[in-house]
Design brief:
The chain is an all-alpha fold. It has one domain. The radius of gyration is 51 Å and the shape is rod-shaped. The N and C termini lie far apart (135 Å).
Length: 130
């Protein structure tokens, strides 16, 4: 820190030193110039940020459109695969149903033959006891 000087002593007492009118005018001009530069910088900064945001937003929109189209393509491919799989499954189910019907018909004919053979057979004679 700097060693205390006269201005610090004046400030501690709550006093202010008079300022030279030329100095005051120079400070006022300097303040006005700085405020103007700050306002100009703020306007330029806002314009720059707005432009960057618009560019970024447009870039992001294009990116998401590309990603979305890619996803749509992938979804279509998956949907087509599901349709093909369902068709194969339906075809196999139909073939299995045909086979099952054929087997059931053969079993029914065999049952009829067995029943017919059993009916034509002579009854068993009881076993003799010894």
């Amino acid at each position: 820190m700097y060693p205390p000087c006269d201005i610090d002593k004046v400030r501690e007492r709550g006093e202010t030193w008079p300022v030279d009118p030329e100095m005051r005018e120079a400070f006022d001009r300097l303040g006005a110039n700085m405020r103007g530069e700050i306002r100009t910088a703020v306007v330029e900064m806002r314009s720059y940020v707005d432009d960057r945001l618009q560019t970024t937003t447009a870039d992001m929109r294009r990116h998401f459109e590309v990603v979305g189209e890619s996803l749509r393509s992938d979804f279509r491919a998956v949907a087509e695969g599901v349709v093909l799989l369902n068709q194969r499954t339906d075809r196999r189910d139909g073939e299995e149903a045909g086979r099952t019907d054929g087997i059931e018909g053969r079993v029914s004919r065999l049952e009829v033959r067995v029943t017919s053979l059993e009916d034509d057979r002579k009854p068993r004679q009881p076993r003799r006891r010894r």
